[in-house]
Model the fold of this input.
Amino acid sequence: MSAFSALLQNSRRRLLYNLFSRHCSRCISTPSSSSLEINVDLSHPTYMVWGSNTGVGKTLVSTGLAASVLSSAASSNPAKFFYIKPVQTGFPADSDSRFVYRKFSEIFLRRRGQASSVASNHALKASALAAKELLGAGSEDEKLERSEDGLKNLCWYEEMRMRGEETQVVGSELVCKTIYGWKEAISPHLAAEREGTVIQDLNLLESLQRCMWLGVDDGSNGRKEGIWSLIETAGGVASPGPSGTLQCDLYRPFRLPAILVGDGRLGGISGTISAYESLKLRGYDIVAVIFDDHGLINEVPLLSYLRHRVPVLVLPPVPQDQSDNLMEWFDESQSIFGSLKEMMLSAYLERLQRLQNMPKKARDNFWWPFTQHKLVPEEIVTVIDSRCGENFAVHKVQNADIITQQFDACASWWTQGPDTTLQIELARDMGYAAARFGHVMFPENVYEPALLCAELLLEGVGKGWASRAFFSDNGSTAIEIALKMAFRKFSHDHGILLDSVTGNLVERSLVFKVLALSGSYHGDTLGAMEAQAPSSYTGFLQQPWYTGRGLFLDPPTVFICNGSWNISLPEVLQSKSLKLENMIFNSCEELFNGSRESSDLARSYSTYITQQLCLFLGSEDHIGALIIEPVIHAAGGMHMVDPLFQRMLVKECRNRKIPVIFDEVFTGFWRLGAESAAELLGCTPDIACYAKLMTGGVIPLAATLATEAIFDAFKGDSKLMALLHGHSYSAHAMGCTAATKAIRWFKDPQTNSNIIARGRRLRELWDAKLVHQISLHPAVQRVVTLGTLFALELCAEGHDAGYGSLYASSLVRMLREDGVYLRPLGNVIYLMCGPCTSPQICSQLISKLHRRLNEFSQANA
Amino acid sequence: MSAFSALLQNSRRRLLYNLFSRHCSRCISTPSSSSLEINVDLSHPTYMVWGSNTGVGKTLVSTGLAASVLSSAASSNPAKFFYIKPVQTGFPADSDSRFVYRKFSEIFLRRRGQASSVASNHALKASALAAKELLGAGSEDEKLERSEDGLKNLCWYEEMRMRGEETQVVGSELVCKTIYGWKEAISPHLAAEREGTVIQDLNLLESLQRCMWLGVDDGSNGRKEGIWSLIETAGGVASPGPSGTLQCDLYRPFRLPAILVGDGRLGGISGTISAYESLKLRGYDIVAVIFDDHGLINEVPLLSYLRHRVPVLVLPPVPQDQSDNLMEWFDESQSIFGSLKEMMLSAYLERLQRLQNMPKKARDNFWWPFTQHKLVPEEIVTVIDSRCGENFAVHKVQNADIITQQFDACASWWTQGPDTTLQIELARDMGYAAARFGHVMFPENVYEPALLCAELLLEGVGKGWASRAFFSDNGSTAIEIALKMAFRKFSHDHGILLDSVTGNLVERSLVFKVLALSGSYHGDTLGAMEAQAPSSYTGFLQQPWYTGRGLFLDPPTVFICNGSWNISLPEVLQSKSLKLENMIFNSCEELFNGSRESSDLARSYSTYITQQLCLFLGSEDHIGALIIEPVIHAAGGMHMVDPLFQRMLVKECRNRKIPVIFDEVFTGFWRLGAESAAELLGCTPDIACYAKLMTGGVIPLAATLATEAIFDAFKGDSKLMALLHGHSYSAHAMGCTAATKAIRWFKDPQTNSNIIARGRRLRELWDAKLVHQISLHPAVQRVVTLGTLFALELCAEGHDAGYGSLYASSLVRMLREDGVYLRPLGNVIYLMCGPCTSPQICSQLISKLHRRLNEFSQANA
Done:
């Protein structure tokens, strides 16, 4: 490339250690935290250039775009183009940023317009080998500081000022940057490994993020006209980055809109389509496909595949002669790049406008569940652009529009579990299941995903008791099914006679009720509601058909208060004879200890339950089922029920042949630190319901598991004896596929590093010391932590307490500003992570909460 | 390649026109029907070889495999290897089948074992240009018959017999076939176009299917040890086939297990992963990835990506020297191909075993909905291996194991709509939505798929009346939500006072009931059940909590009988004053005619409804809502209600300020030939429920639409006034994405060729003459056809009639043998296609039904 330099009349090449080092310290520093807050600037078009293969001309496209943007600039209308090459191998002999820098300069000088222009090329970090190659051997090399990731901080810089026809005023500026360079011209993961400088993904992302903001963020508000950023990837879409992570996965947290440089050669249609699909399978939006012509008319099948929804642009054939300076090619391509630029600009503007208008449109079209629309003004509507693992990417207007990150601490109504890797694998599996099966009829049929899922459920949460899986769509339907199962079994066991034709009672009127706990919640359909005690959800205003068909007992609850676990007994159970040492515990484990069954408290529980059942049994009504949420009453306010009480309940019902239903819709699949809450309780049900986290949180699916004895109560010679309940998408293939993947993922120590105790438990996720401190906070009434759940109740009285309360709103708002998306349950707030979330992230969450609690209580003082 | 021939000592090259022509007439004929029955032979391993790009060595892998399979054969253990190249361009100069044939012969002669061997190479069809090139110009060319698809039938054939060391007995046989050849060495779609011989996908698939069966199907039973088939694709996975259809889509109906030949070069990791993903996105199973080494250790990131679940094999570097005969390379690769063969064999055996065991496992683990397990022995369990558009691919054991095709005529509980193209696009969209969003919290938030879906619903089925979309998971929950909406509105409009804290009635006890029609069905959860009249589903045996909270009217029904549409009035409506001409119609359209509102019948309907409402209103109960399934009572037995009656019902309720609910769960989205059944009825509801077909049939999602007036009844200053109902996956991104895609697809004449009447209707799908004939059949009580629905009731009495009846079982079994999967509703059977299904296919279905009806009635005579 030395023939080149003749052209660069105004070039000034510098090695500005001091000047640039300061620069660098702002733009690149090693991140110390295990997490990175992602912020994407929407003040101007920012795109990522992907290639369907290596050598398809990504850098030519970058150059053409830069020239197109900058050449239309005038001194009255200045433009600035940032070109970033995060990962460069073969460096410095190969340098795409230098290529863009040089070619742009050549093009500028050839086309020379009114305004002047500045171009620069920066190289930030490189392996020792590449640094040596760039800077020459000797003392210079020794001077270079080595950053923590083992790379050399280069601070290498070259610049060229180019005069326009008539003015000295700079109309346009090109800033090219190579962030990381390795010497060998091989895949980055290999080069990094061989040159002893493997860098972590988070470090790379942080460097890239700083680079993207640097020079753009001038503190001004609104859209920055004339500024463009372009990030060029290395190799193909799924080529590994320096750590080995595929680039399409590596850059996913930014989810920048994409330009795909396709392949115009023979076989290039296939490669281009497959690359497009790999990007789609990571949730990227592709704004245009572009490739150079090889006379094969590849654009026709591509457009047909894309159904003309994504533009396909064809560049003139790139001269194969190495000595060609490409100036004529760039001239010929000028209008194509001009079109590409326009498409990119309008896609950017459309996206921005859509994001800005979404809150209004949402308020005009949606009817949100559990939401008083009058209390949701436009400005508090959250626009979710995407999710990546546990984090939402949220649109916000601060100074300018940005996409920022919020941890989904409500786990999207307790459904979420995937980390970023699981999310991507689930996405691929969802595509596969939809392509292989779509949905197929379940009854009397069998297909792989349904069978695998049933097998896994029965070997997992159902192990040791369940032998049948009945599928439905959500927790509420799973509960209705469970009730039907239980009642039939009860009728069967208690000799209740039914007419085989009408299905009606032969003898007399008789009413089935359930035994349940006050404060438990089993869903929103009528049958599920009937099994819960009267509450805000069940009044005539909400459900005129609700009657409350149950015997509802007040349960004792447990929680952390002032640093230790306490039991709170309902009035009816309070007695002076109970010893205090039975009522305070040092750890949660003690609460689950089986030895408690021989305590005074256990006897007291047992007596109480027996009394209540006896009182009830005098009437015409029968208790046809026990239904409980094991351990935690979730929607009821994240109350932890004394597990001993639930154990005694199960025991007493077993003695009376009352079928036992566990509602594990919330508690199942590691939500509470074990695969099932039944395992924590240490007793098994006859029927149990699962949903939410079962599919890893991507798709609705529910299952009701039952013992063979329950199943047998439905066998008979007539179809009318069968359980005549079912939903259209019973055991749908995608749901079962997701469940299979998620259940295995959560359970496997290879994919879930939180798994301990020979696969039986999650390690402690919430920092014990911090939890202790929070429990001492004067604004805090009680704390509960178990598995992935951290909950606290704020001290509140009167209208400030209960489900309808808005007391926690200000705290919630502050935490959302801290990047924590939570939703209160009245004056109860909770943080919920996934089974794979690292304890570090959990600690960050409760630290933020702790800090904000002080502010909150001061404001409320 | 002439240097080659020296080696081929035993070669006999023939042009056996007469002999082979007969052969051909069996193996390749032009299909006349518009559909093809797919049958995949599982008697032996059959694989498809795909390439991640062109020129990655698919044919080398095919050759190596052939050699590996055949070289282990002995005379005691003969083997036969079929190699098929369906599409060859650059032919005959390039011929992969000839390459395999020749290289195998060379390898055989080099390794020469005990047994002898026969190898042959066939070329079946070619473009005129390619044929001329192969056979030489002149008279021969003229003799060649031109097949209907414009190609020449070649019947070109070469054969070589190779002697083993000790015996004359043939131990192994290689049969290589090229089905279609084009001369130009370009993409098949271009070559076919340029050489004037574009062939249809169905013709190609039929040719391939014949080829796959020919020589294999010897009438023997069970597994055919020693036989292998390998089909090699052209170019990359998504390279277009001759018609332009991408090959991964083209061959999808067979869904053969795949071997992916990856790319070991720089950038090859990306291309290999993307190709893998494109195959997964079509539902293919990839058994192994193999590629040749370029020193880049590409297998490490590939294995990491695949999490070691799919084996990756690395071949020695392929010599780049064109003169190399590759014999040493094949020697070096021998053990790799041996391993590949073993993996393929064991994957084949595992699949076979799994398929065979599935019915038993299903019976052991599943609890099917609406199924009396005692009536489902193992042998009637259907094993569904996949679906492709409207067809199931079903495992059957006839002589040997096969995968055969059944039209999903129950539309998998009325959910299905996609054709094969929509299914593939939906799969890609599902992957994208899962990757971009997974699932995110809905209330107070907005994200693109939910907003787009809500907008489309309100502009489509809700056009002109609805302004709010409330999402849930299935029809049943959508109904429960609708009822809550209606009751609140009714309270609001009728001044029913409620306590603002408890939500309970202030004044007196009061009961809300619904006005509904006998025989309608709204779902299986308690609230939905309460809104339907007593039936087999509602007795104490099934739902002890059911009380039937409705005023249920018997509706007049309409149906085709003896060739014309008739009205059947319930007893209470029968009157001598009604004129017969009001009761018989020549066409279904007449029934929907608005002018009927001024008829005697309309007045009679109106009077009856008014009387019933007046009688009821004397009590403490209020009619808080009207709920109807517009036009068709689906689960109730596919009864069509006189639309005039439903119109009068709506009118009377409007007059009394009773909110009107349409249950369009079954009827919505073109099921009945219009986007909504409300459109057919010609009147709009206040609330309507949608599910099933809404997502195109891939994923559960439901919506309850409402007017702004309904929505306003929930506004207030307290959260407790809001509609406190919601399911965890409310408005989940995948469901909304699928709905958006499907709704647009069904509506767009570009994607749905059935759309007529300026987008308002589907054309008639069921052949009128055949329907007429069937309605005359003595075994048939009544017929209903509307939109995608064809239903008939078999004449039956006593136990043979009704939901519990097994009367139709034998007819259902016969039709399943004919490749039509249907499920009866007692003595009612129905066929249901998708909105895009061609009328030709629908006619085939009812023809088959018509034929089997004769057999059925003879057997029952």
Notes: The mean pLDDT of chain B is 91. Chain B has three domains: 2-31+44-364, 392-414+762-859, 420-746. The CA atoms of residues 714 and 721 of chain B lie 6 Å apart. Chain B touches chain A through 176 residues (CB under 8 Å).
